[in-house]
Write a structure and sequence with these properties.
- The radius of gyration is 16 Å and the shape is globular.
- Strands 1, 2, 3, 4 and 5 form a 5-stranded mixed beta sheet that branches.
- The N and C termini lie far apart (38 Å).
- By secondary structure, the chain is of the alpha+beta class.
- Helices cover 23% and strands 21% of the residues.
- It contains 3 helices and 5 strands, in the order βαββββαα.
- The longest helix has 15 residues, at 37-51.
- It has one domain (5-22, 32-133).
């Protein structure tokens, strides 16, 4: 990725998200599946840094447009925030590739529009506190509670 010079150690990253075990993907052509949208977004975000000569890192948010629109029909999620791995074993945050190049793992957490606005107004730490308190992880949880609405 095209990271700032002082962050060259973050140049390589892998994105991940988790789908529930019962998420209906098997035997379905991606083009025709209304359940394939998390995979499509994972693919879009993986290409984003290359297409825009940019980078993605912890606490970066990526909205679906301006203003943010739902990521897919049937969901109100409209954005992502990137976080270090939340549920994986300690030490899973990076691996070292040949040539001593670290590759960082980043978890995609789906956000509602209000959660994105909350992060932009109050900061990533404030949003993280709410997400952690609500048990939000990288697992796609359709219909989970919106932590920015009291």
């Amino acid at each position: 990725m095209a990271v700032p010079t002082e962050l060259e150690h973050l140049q390589f990253a892998e994105l991940m998200l988790m789908l529930p075990a019962n998420w209906p993907l098997r035997g379905t052509a991606p083009q025709s599946s209304s359940n394939f949208w998390p995979i499509e977004w994972l693919q879009r975000l993986a290409v984003f840094p290359h297409a825009y000569k940019s980078w993605l890192g912890v606490n970066h948010t990526v909205p679906n447009g301006d203003p943010p629109l739902p990521l897919a029909p049937g969901t109100e999620f409209a954005s992502f925030i990137l976080a270090p791995p939340l549920t994986e074993p300690k030490g899973f945050d990076a691996c070292v590739m040949p040539g001593d190049k670290p590759v960082w793992f980043l978890t995609l957490i789906l956000l509602y529009r209000e959660e994105l606005w909350f992060k932009l107004e109050r900061g990533a730490d404030a949003l993280s506190t709410l997400l952690v308190a609500a048990g939000v992880t990288g697992l796609v949880q359709p219909g989970r509670r919106n932590v920015a609405i009291a």
